[in-house]
């Protein structure tokens, strides 16, 4: 499948940004990832879909070693993830991550949240970092909210700040872990719009999501998870309109997806 | 029984000096025991077993020994151990710091543990080292959260400094007790002492409450 798929996929002729080779992850006696292999090409938006507990988020967290894979390996830009914390830091700096619960730093303003990474980690000039943070906040439509603390922002606004915070490190890939699952329905759209614009700018994105219409419209490639495995993968048109795996069909029909 | 309150006014200079020394001892103790408590807390959380064990021993020892015993111990043992003759003030300061650092270590540990794991993960995911994540993300939040606890530690510390009077540090309690034994004005001096401690302690507690309201973080 990999060889035929490679030609179809965006930038499939180039080395992948992220590659998963038989990744296994166990929590105690529970096997959460049971040999997942997949690739993420440059500029692709890869959406991970599937039932809760199927391993999507765990794979995402293995990407930047928030969870350490027990078997197989994760290769980032041609290099397997390093083992030591010190080396991992340098890899993580090139991966932005957006969490389900935003995880903005509540003691900092929105602007400080966005500027803290470059200042603390990259040793950036504070004035320049703040100017860039302001620019990023404008990019996510929150130019006027820089002085607000997270507690004074809506969920959708907080998540957009979180996206700006991740972008401030100029990452090569953005990892989204169910970025809209904790949001009120009326603010989901504003976050998805920011993500869609990011995709249009060519950002490489790995997105764990339950937003099937977003996956359908924005993703270049879909990975369908079930019980710790990728049971089906392909372009959205194929997955959503002509799923071949019975579990994919039942998963999509449970969500009320009818093409 | 006749009361002569004039004695309090008569010795106002000595009492004022005692008050200054009490305040100095409190401030100096906290100034050392806050970073000290953080250091001990970090030791306890170390992945190196010997280091975390040393941190645990520190806390469990100095938290569970009566402070007055620590004061005596510092007075008699410190000069032998270090071969340096400490001033009474420095001796008292060492004893207070050991005790309050142990308390603060536990307070900070509770504060750090109350910050949810996702905050540390978010910082690490950006590429921060563990110590950067602690300094920039976890500790500032933990400190705000434990401010009320540190405040009550501060207020007890302010009163507990009176214990160093047993090694003749000339703070408020020692001064007042000296005046008492010279003038035999027991009731007046003890009452004055209580009034001064209360007058100084109550506003401190109020100020700390105010700091908490102003800087407390809401999520």
Protein described:
The complex is a heterodimer of chains A (259) and B (219). By secondary structure, chain A is of the alpha/beta class. Helix content of chain A is 39%, strand content 23%. In chain A, α5 (126-139) crosses α6 and α6 (155-167) packs parallel to α7 (185-200). The two termini of chain A are 24 Å apart. Helices cover 82% and strands 0% of the residues of chain B. Chain B has nine helices and no strands. In chain B, α2 (12-44) packs antiparallel against α3 (49-64). The radius of gyration of chain B is 21 Å and the shape is globular. Classes of the chains: A alpha/beta (259), B mainly alpha (219). Chain A binds chain B through residues 64, 66, 85-86, 89-90, 92-93, 95, 97, 99, 101, 103-107, 116-117, 120-121, 149-151, 165-166, 169, and chain B through 118-119, 121-130, 132, 136-137, 140-141, 144, 217-219.
Q: How do the helices and strands line up, and which of them pair or pack?
A:
The complex is a heterodimer of chains A (259) and B (219).
Chain A: H1 2-8, E1 18-27, E2 30-40, E3 45-49, H2 56-63, E4 71-76, E5 79-80, H3 85-92, E6 95-98, H4 110-121, H5 126-139, H6 155-167, E7 173-177, H7 185-200, E8 204-208, H8 212-218, E9 221-226, E10 229-234, H9 236-241, H10 246-254
Parallel strand pairs in A: 3-8, 3-9, 6-7, 7-8
Antiparallel strand pairs in A: 1-2, 1-4, 4-5, 9-10
Helix pairs in contact in A: 4-5, 4-6, 5-6, 6-7
Chain B: H1 6-10, H2 12-44, H3 49-64, H4 67-82, H5 88-114, H6 117-126, H7 130-160, H8 172-183, H9 186-215
Helix pairs in contact in B: 2-3, 2-5, 2-8, 3-5, 4-5, 5-7, 6-7, 7-9, 8-9
């Amino acid at each position: 499948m990999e060889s035929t798929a490679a030609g179809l996929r965006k930038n499939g002729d180039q080395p992948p940004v992220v590659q998963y080779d038989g990744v296994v992850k166990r929590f105690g006696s529970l096997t959460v990832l049971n040999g997942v292999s997949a690739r993420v090409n440059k500029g692709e938006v890869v959406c991970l879909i599937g039932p809760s507990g199927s391993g999507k988020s765990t794979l995402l967290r293995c990407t930047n070693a928030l969870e350490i894979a027990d078997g197989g390996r994760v290769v980032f830009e041609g290099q397997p993830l390093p083992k030591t914390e010190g080396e991992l830091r340098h890899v993580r700096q090139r991966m932005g991550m957006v969490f389900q619960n935003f995880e903005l730093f509540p003691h900092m303003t929105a602007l400080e949240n966005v500027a803290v990474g470059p200042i603390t980690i990259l040793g950036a000039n504070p004035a320049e970092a703040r100017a860039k943070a302001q620019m990023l906040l404008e990019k996510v439509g929150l130019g006027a909210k820089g002085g607000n603390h997270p507690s004074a922002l809506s969920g959708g606004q907080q998540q957009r700040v979180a996206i700006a915070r991740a972008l401030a490190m100029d990452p090569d890939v953005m990892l989204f872990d169910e970025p809209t699952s904790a949001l009120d329905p009326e603010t989901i759209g504003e976050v998805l719009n920011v993500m869609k614009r990011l995709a249009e700018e060519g950002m490489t994105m790995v997105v764990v999501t339950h937003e099937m219409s977003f996956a359908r419209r924005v993703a270049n490639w879909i990975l369908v998870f079930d019980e710790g495995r990728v049971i089906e993968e392909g372009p959205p048109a194929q997955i959503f309109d002509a799923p071949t795996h019975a579990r994919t069909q039942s998963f999509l029909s449970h969500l009320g997806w009818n093409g | 029984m006749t009361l002569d309150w004039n004695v309090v006014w008569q010795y106002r200079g000595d009492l004022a000096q005692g008050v200054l020394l009490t305040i100095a001892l409190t401030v100096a103790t906290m100034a050392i025991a806050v970073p000290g408590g953080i250091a001990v807390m970090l030791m306890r959380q170390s992945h190196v077993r010997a280091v975390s064990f040393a941190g645990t021993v520190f806390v469990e020892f100095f938290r569970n020994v009566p402070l007055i015993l620590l004061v005596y111990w510092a007075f008699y043992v410190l000069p032998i151990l270090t071969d340096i003759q400490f001033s009474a003030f420095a001796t008292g300061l060492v004893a207070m710091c050991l005790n309050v650092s142990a308390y603060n270590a536990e307070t900070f540990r509770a504060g750090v543990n109350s910050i949810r794991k996702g905050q540390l993960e978010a910082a690490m995911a950006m590429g921060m080292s563990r110590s950067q994540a602690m300094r920039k993300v976890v500790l500032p939040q933990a400190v705000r959260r434990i401010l009320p606890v540190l405040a009550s530690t501060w207020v007890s510390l302010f009163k507990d400094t009176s214990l160093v009077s047993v090694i003749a540090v000339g703070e408020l309690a020692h001064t007042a007790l000296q005046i008492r034994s010279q003038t035999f004005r027991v009731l007046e001096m003890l009452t004055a002492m209580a009034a001064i401690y209360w007058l100084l302690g109550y506003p401190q507690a109020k100020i700390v409450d105010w700091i908490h309201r102003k800087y407390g973080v809401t999520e």
